[in-house]
User: What shape does this take?
Amino acid sequence: MEIVEGIGIGIAVILAALLILFVRRALVTRSGGIIRLSVRVTTVLDGRGWSPGFARFVGDQLRWYRMFSFALRPKRVLSRKELVVERRRLPEGQERLSMPSDWVILRCTSQHAPVEIAMARSTVTGFSSWLEAAPPGAASPRMASQDWPAA
Assistant: This one.
């Protein structure tokens, strides 16, 4: 009987964890404006260190949430005022195995540190528009390089 109780408790814990993940995702995505976005969290091994997730545009911030996390708060917050895209490239080597083939990698700098983000090619246009948006009369140096590879 103890084994059956142990199995029952284990199944209950697994179901509760799955429920929490789905409720978390519903809370985070409730107001729309969600994009799929991977962030490179470590550069120890070349082409590795990508973490899948989704991001939400909230005013002047891009809030990134890890796909498999119980946290309700974003893991990273990128501010439009501090973010500059240095270059754009296609996935190379091991990266091609860890992300969809139509994704583009953007190397950005912010006030804190460089960051690499990957998103679908069709999403880059919306991201660029959001990044370039500025109040009337303000100049925007957000797109540092104009020699990007053709999409």
